[in-house]
Amino acid sequence: MWDGIIIGGGLAGLIAGIRASERGKHVLIISEGAGSLTYSSGALNFGDVVQLRSRENHPYALIEENVIQAGMDYFQKLFPDYQGVCGRTQTLFTPLGSPRTANIIPSGQNAAVLQDAKRIVLMAPEGMKDFFSKIIKTNLKICYPQCIVDIYPFRISAFEAWHAIGKPVTGMEYARYWQSGPGIAELKRVLAGVTITCSETVVLFPGLATAFSEPLKEVLSETPFPVIEMTSFPPSAGGHNLYNALKQKFKSLGGELLMGTGVQRIELQEKECRKAIVSSKGRPTAFAAHSFILATGGILGGGIEVTAEAAQETLLGLPLYVPAEWTKSEFLGEQPYAHTGIEADSDLRPVDPGTKEVLFENLRVAGRMLAHWDPWTDNCGGGVSLTSGWYAGEKL
Amino acid sequence: MSFEQDKAEILDACIKCSACTAMCPVAAVNPLFPGPKILGPDAERFRLEGLQIGTTLSYYCSKCKTCEITCPSGVKITEMITRAQEDAKMSEGGKTLQFSIRDYLFGRAEYLGKLATVLPGLTNVLLKAPLFRQILEQTLGICSEAPLPAYHTKFETAEKDRKSKKQVVYFPGCFVTYNDPLTGQAIVKVLKHNGYEVIVPPFHCCGTPLEGNGYLREAQETAKKNLALMEPYMRAGIPLITGCTSCGLALREYPGLAESASELQAYDLFEFLWELQERNEFRKDFKDIQVSLGYHSSCHLKAQGIGTPSVRLLRLIPGVQVTDLDQGCCGLSGSYGFKKEKYHTAMQIGKPLFNRVRQGAANSEFQSVITECGGCQVQIRHGSGIETVHPVWVLMQAYGFFQLLSSGRHASSELV
After folding, report:
1. How many domains does one find in chain B?
2. d(Cα B315, Cα A278) in Å, to the nearest integer?
3. What SS3 class is residue B377?
């Protein structure tokens, strides 16, 4: 018998699992595959918390303001490599070299120093996949007109076999190599080759993710110029490293992670969830728990299935809030379908959208599947997952 | 070949996110290997049109199933690659004669075991002799540096105990039967201690080595022979238990082969013991022990979708510390790492794990490593030099049946 079973091993599920395990709970996370963190840049957005809290039903409005702050603080205490302050954004780079903002970012991605730069050196690793140095250079020149932008191509012997057959090297392959013993020495050598023609030189480095690696951070602390990491297209090292760090933290606290297999159904008894029936190979396995957290994601994550006729929650068939009108004409604007999800009470327990009656006493909902928000226009994807996950773990 | 609707639908589940290739242990170390996305769902589009591509490269897939576990969309990538290999074999493509003969032999672990255990002492002397290993490499393409496991007198259930009302059937698998019978005896002892009579019918190989070497049809035939042996026990509702995670994965897939097999209750040993624990039937008469262990989860345990029951259970023993190493595949993948063209890839794959093991042992985080898979045990010992055993030995020690886990498990006299 487990204290808690969390269904879904993305950001919300893992944070919930870490918090609950830290509180001494015996927790099992069941995840159908690697969560979407591997596709993400690793930077987390919270959005305008005060404004979003004023919106009736927004997930932030369900919980106290200090809970949001506590969730953010908790995350940064867990991972000191991440920095940020509630209500303030920081600048980082997209894979195409245009600046964007986020609230909590790996410190290596922080591009603030570019405001005072006179020269930007864009590192151009040989044969890197999805890396477009000319486009990046053009974007940098538009955004930082005071800067000279130099492209610094380099080639390292570790990937000669790739180059020989004309195979591109992904950003993740580069990032993984830099983290290895030989890679660290090679990185020092490569960076030593960058000449400083003016004192305000900043180096921009794609395919590098230093978070969670002490030796890598040390290398960068010793260079005579600041080095800024770039985010990358999926799959990305930044998101992947964060995913690994969350996973390892959870396991080190005694949590168990069951990956690659989904939950078939939940065995119920009146208003309580009793057992998660997992589709193990060949024969289903039942795991009983006192309490459950549903963090299976939204439409993209598979927690909500949408057909031409209806939208439904895939595991328990929980009633969903579904907007009357699903889409609007402006493609990149607000899209009402994004608000589809489960309505919850202040304890994150799912409620009936009509009667507001709590549906299950020992079930909480966290992350993308909560209703009434749009991660793209509200800019709070990471924030909602992180805070609702933390709170669900706190309450488990 | 006609267009197959169901195959196309499975294929459409792939959203081309590349998460599988990003996690593939072979693609990470071998640039020539295009990775699971390209060899699986991408090449499958061509295969549906009757076009075989990438067959030679597909043999570098180690069948660890990491791609299937990782895939957020449930695409059966390894299955696609295995099927493509089978099709390629029928059209005689991809492999040299030398590799075909070798893979034919590696697929038949059971017969190799029978042959090797006629005179296990002689076999072991030969397997350690550099000249013999050079000959094996030259003639059969078996890498001379590879950690071929030593053989042992064949596994027998020696003890004839009183009949218990509670019975289980034990599937030892080839590794226990021919290479590590003491672990088999330990498993039997632990089950008996928990009140079970242990029945061991004369099973054949589970079929995994055949499947891994591209002999799907033969694997299914072997499975059917085993199913026939299991039939009476299945009917009586007696659970089937194995301590080997690759056998376990294969046994769990048996129900797809025959109608009656749907009654098959195949359990991993620790999964079964955990069920006893949940029913308050697991014996916890533990002696006072102090051990710290690093745990490696084998790929085929992950693919079963049952979690890590041994870690869960061993943590119930006071004084036992278990650290989940979480460093991915060990690289061996059955006979994959024994093959001369793949040995170095296998060692590269296992490198993060070996480093983690050496580091943990060096700073006294743990004394030894545990993993259910015999192949992983062989590879971790080979790659790190640290003693690696089946987790049942921790239970043996806790029950007081066995002393000194970290030194000389192989001395059978120490079995109390």
Report:
1. 2
2. 23
3. helix
Cβ separation A38–B19 shorter than 8 A: yes
Interface contact A165-B31, CB threshold 8 A: yes
Residue B151, domain member (yes or no): no
Q: Is the pLDDT of residue A364 over 50?
A: yes
Token pair, residue A16, equals 């919930």
* B75: nearest Cα among B125, B121, B15, B134: B15
What are the structure tokens assigned to A224, written together? 């005579």
The residue of B78, B306, B349 whose CB has the most chain A CBs within 10 angstroms, and thus the best one to mutate to test that interface, is B306
**What's A2-77+251-395's CATH class?**
alpha beta
In this structure, is residue B48 part of a structural domain? yes
pLDDT in tens, B79-128: 888 888 877 766 655 678 888 888 888 888 888 888 888 888 888 888 88
Residue B204 placed within a domain: no
Dihedral sign from CA coordinates of B75, B81, B82, B88: positive
User: Which residues of chain A make contact with B354, given a CB cutoff of 8 A?
Assistant: none
Does residue B25 lie within any of the structural domains?
A: yes
* CATH-assigned architecture of domain A95-230: 3-Layer(aba) Sandwich (3.40)
Stretch B229-254: mean pLDDT: 93
DSSP per position, B61-124: -----HHHHH-TT---HHHHHHHHHHHHHHTT-S--HHHHHHHHHHHTHHHHHHHHTTSHHHHH
Query: A90 is written with which tokens?
Result: 């920081």
Closest CA to A133 of A60, A213, A230: A230
ipTM of the complex: 0.87
Domain of residue B63, CATH code: 1.10.1060.10
**Residue that is last in its domain, among B90, B121, B155:** B90
Is the Cβ pair B253, A281 closer than 8 Å? yes
Over the stretch A207-235, which tens digit does the pLDDT of each residue have? Answer: 999 999 999 999 999 999 999 999 999 88
CATH label of the domain that carries residue B320 = 3.40.50
Contacts of residue B304 in chain A, CB cutoff 8 Å? 280-281
- Per CB-CB distance under 8 Å, the chain A contacts of B261 are none
Q: Which of B90, B114, B137 is the last residue of a domain?
A: B90
Residues of chain B in contact with residue A261, where contact means CB-CB under 8 angstroms, are: 305
- Does any CB of chain A come closer than 8 Å to the CB of residue B289? no
Q: How far is A300 from chain B (nearest CA, A)?
A: 10
A234 at B interface, C-beta within 8 A = yes
* Pick from A33, A283, A302: CB nearest B265: A283
Which of B23, B74, B308 faces A32 most closely, judged by CB atoms? B74
- What does the pLDDT read at residue B331? 93
- The whole-angstrom distance between A262's CA and the closest CA on chain B is 9
Separation between Cα atoms, residue A305 and residue B380, nearest integer Å: 43
Range of the domain at B20: 5-90
Cβ distance A282 to B255 less than 8 Å, yes or no, reads yes
Query: Residue A256: its chain B contacts at CB < 8 A?
Result: 307-308, 311-312
pLDDT of residue A79: 95
* Domain residue extents for chain A: 2-77+251-395, 95-230
The residues, any chain, with a CB within 8 Å of residue B300's CB and separated by 6 or more, are B64, B65, B208, B245, B246, B248, B249, B373
pLDDT tens digits, B48-90: 888 877 777 888 888 888 898 888 778 889 988 888 887 776 6
Percent of chain B with pLDDT over 90: 53
pLDDT per position as a tens digit, B390-414? 999 999 999 999 765 444 444 333 4
* SS3 of residue B182 by DSSP: helix
* Nearest residue, CB atoms, B311 vs list A256, A280, A283: A256
